[in-house]
Amino acid sequence: MKSFIAICLLLVSSVALGATPSWDAVTTACDGSAVTGVTYNVYYSAAAIPTVAVPAVVPCAAMTMIDNTKITKVNAAPVTGGTYNLAIPNGTFNVAVESVASDGTRGGFAQISVVVSLKPGTPLNLKLR
Predict the structure, then answer these.
(1) For the whole model, what pTM was predicted?
(2) Rounded to whole angstroms, how far apart are CA atoms 54 and 113?
(3) For residue 126, is it within any domain?
(4) Residue 1 included in any domain
């Protein structure tokens, strides 16, 4: 199993009651090798994003992954670009983006907690590093 480096997630919205998370492409595996064909899954929840610990697999360290048995991704097909349009209502939400290798191996994720309380046309700009 290969793990991927962390995803940098940028949450930007110019549409009220919605958000467009965007992120930097994953290009390197935990062992330093280059990866291509990476896609992404997007999750959001009013509750905490459920996670599960994954033991180390040499040369990769132990990591935490999204527990996809307890939450459903919002994208119907793999996301190939670095953005995803997400319609969410006003409220407090956790948004997470997970990397997936071309062979289907799930990797690391980044998440951000956001409070959406917008009037129409108000931009929302949040960044997670």
Answers:
(1) 0.74
(2) 23
(3) no
(4) no
Residue 64 domain boundaries: 9-117
The count of domains in the chain is: 1
Calculate ∠ Cα 86-91-92, nearest 5°: 85
pLDDT single digits (tens) 61-116: 888 889 988 998 988 999 888 888 777 777 778 888 888 888 888 888 887 776 66
Measured at the CA of 101, the angle between CA 100 and CA 104, to 5 degrees, comes to 80
CA–CA dist 122, 109 (Å, integer):
28
Residue 125 inside a domain? The answer is no
- Residue 47 sits in a domain whose CATH number is 2.60.40.10
Q: Is residue 53 part of a domain?
A: yes
- Dihedral over Cα of 47, 119, 23, 72: its sign: positive
pLDDT digits (tens, 9 = 90+) for 1-55: 444 444 444 443 333 345 677 778 888 888 888 888 899 998 888 888 999 988 8
